[in-house]
Amino acid sequence: MAPHKVHLCGSIGLDSVDDVLATLGRLLKDNLARVPDGEPGGRRLWIGWQYPVLRSSPYLEVENAAGSGHSKSAQLKVRDGMTGAVRFGELGYAREARASYEDFVRARRAGALRPDARFQVSLPTPFAIVSSYIAADARPQVEPAYEAAMLREVERMCAAIPHRDLCVQWDVCTETIMLDGRDTRMRPVPGMRELFSERFARLAAGVPSGVELGFHLCYGDFEGRHFIEPIDTAKLVEMTALMLAAAQRPVAYVHMPVPIARSDDAYFAPLAQLERPPGTELYLGLLHLGDGVEGASARIAAAERHVGDFGIAAECGLGHWARPELVERMLELHAAVANRAG
């Protein structure tokens, strides 16, 4: 099947939700089954907007003055003298989703989007946020509370948005890099696969059956670059198998990155071992502005030798792109490749 279907990971570096919806409708209306709001404003830097939420918690305080690991923010610990369980209130995701959904409905009603398009909400896994901003000793106490708060966010948005109109995507970055095992800042831990499986099972169970569920696998996008480049798709296939087994419910799609330099068979060969249940789509993030249609076509040809029936995407979100004209050029590339393939 020709890879004419397009997926957007979530963030799109335009100024407003209205700008995002208008641009996507103009360029990609017929190719998008799921439409994100572009995550403008504070959400543009993925998990960065959650640091002030954590910092304002009465349960937490700064552990030291300097950031550690891949985060430049000072890590947080449970406040000295605090007794009882840590608890978080609103995180903001449901409130943002409810507001953007109204814009989405107006755009769809006006004919700018496909009548069957779903509104896509992309969420970081709680593990990614806690492992980035919480000191190691405090994570066992903080992560369950933050995960519970995130699942309440999902519950609120699912109560406000019709299930037939909604897709929830979990962004799986820190876990993917840990499973890869080569980044010294995010090292594997004992029992890691079992721990990830338990987390994915809870996150999947928090999404009602009538709501689409998707996963975006990521090797990081800090300042527009991967933390490390994947050797091939083997670890991505391994992570996908773990997630699908843990979910115990239909998964609409999985997205995987493809570095710009990789149009060789060695990168895509492990995809031949990917087992997907019927209805689970695969999107390959093989679009790069650096080599345009020609480069994407070479990567598509290599992928097609090892896996069939996949859609196309960028490697990650487009939120870090500071110039709107570059974002538009990238979206035009999505359209050019999709229409050429279709």
Distance between the termini: 9 Å
Q: How many structural domains in the coordinates?
A: 1
Can you give the helix content as a percent range? 25-40%
Q: Which oligomerization state do the chains in this entry correspond to? A: single chain
The top-level CATH class is: Alpha Beta
Element order: H for helix, E for strand? EHEHEEHEHHEHHEHEHEHEH
Give the strand order, joined by hyphens, for the main sheet: 1-10-9-8-7-6-5-2
Summed up, the helix count is: 11
CATH architecture: Alpha-Beta Barrel
Whole-number mean pLDDT: 92
Please indicate the percent range of residues in DSSP E strands (runs of 2 or more): 15-25%
Number of strands: 10
Uncertain regions: pLDDT < 50 for 5+ in a row? none
Helix-strand makeup class: alpha/beta
**Rg over alpha carbons:** 19 Å
Task: Look up the CATH topology.
Answer: TIM Barrel
Tell me the major beta sheet.
8 strands, parallel
Q: Which geometry do the CA atoms define? A: globular
Structure description:
The protein is an alpha/beta fold and 342 residues long. It has one domain (6-341): TIM Barrel. 39% of the residues lie in helices and 16% in strands. The protein contains 11 helices and 10 strands. The chain has helices at 17-28, 50-55, 93-109, 126-133, 139-160, 174-180, 192-205, 234-247, 265-268, 292-304, 324-341, and strands at residues 6-7, 34-36, 60-67, 74-78, 118-124, 166-172, 212-217, 253-257, 281-287, 310-314. The strands form 2 sheets. It has an 8-stranded parallel beta sheet. A two-stranded antiparallel sheet has the order 3-4. Helix 10 links the parallel strand 9 (281-287) and strand 10 (310-314). Helix 4 (126-133) packs antiparallel against helix 5 (139-160). It is globular and about 60 Å long. The mean pLDDT is 92.
